[in-house]
Amino acid sequence: MTVVRLPRQDLFARQEMEVPAPAERQLAQLVARRLTREPLAYILGRREFYGINLLVNPNVLIPRPETETLVEHALFMALMGMENPALVIADVGTGTGAIAINLAIHLPNARIYATDVSDEALDVASYNIRGHNVADRVTLLKGDLLEPLPEPVDLIAANLPYIPTDRIPTLQPEVQREPREALDGGPDGLDHIRRLVAQAAGGKLKEPGVILLELDPEQAPAVEALAHQLFPDAQTSVEKDLARLDRVFVINRGMN
Ligand SMILES: C[S@@+](CC[C@H](N)C(=O)[O-])C[C@H]1O[C@@H](n2cnc3c(N)ncnc32)[C@H](O)[C@@H]1O
Fold this sequence. Notes:
By secondary structure, this protein is an alpha/beta fold. The protein contains ten helices and nine strands.
């Protein structure tokens, strides 16, 4: 499709079509790249996420289906639970902008801050935000977690790096081609999440307010303990992904 520049359905309709020699050569090059275990999304330069197409390159994490659970739950909380329709939201560690853009599309009255430490990731997010016509409501900020936010927010959605450092060499080669700073969460994978929850408790989250954190199922008990320490009055819950694994930790501070 990429090589012969035809939509998928046309490939079936035109099965007798002869592939031109330059296209055949180009395809062989793409296959050779894939054989080196380069991720398909980097080869194609794009990835579909929650119904939108995003530019991706090796400077950003390739958005995952698990993160669609985070988007879905953020939308559920925003639409069902929060009285104020003009929500202020933070997408922390935005990467391609996948979470921020979808929240902006589905919550037309929301204002969204999207933060990242990586200039290269912010460039990709900027391209995607403009491409989906949400630049008027999504503000990119460079900095550490919630630090660059100019005001407290109603909802924090974060898919931060959460893989324990010593597990990274055991991951499949494709994943190891993704940026280290998008994967490595420190010794137990929770370095960033711990700091984020502390920053939120230190004044960056409004009351009522909600934090949604993507994590590894094994990390839920540790995050539960952390949440109760820093937000003793909050309600907590864990949402499952499509594989029925605990994936999104919810800290609900005073919202019905
Ligand atoms: C797991 S990726 C998630 C990207 C995107 N949100 C997604 O779900 O596809 C984590 C992102 O967090 C960023 N990041 C790492 N440390 C950070 C920090 N201290 N503050 C802000 N962003 C950070 C990385 O550069 C990376 O883009």
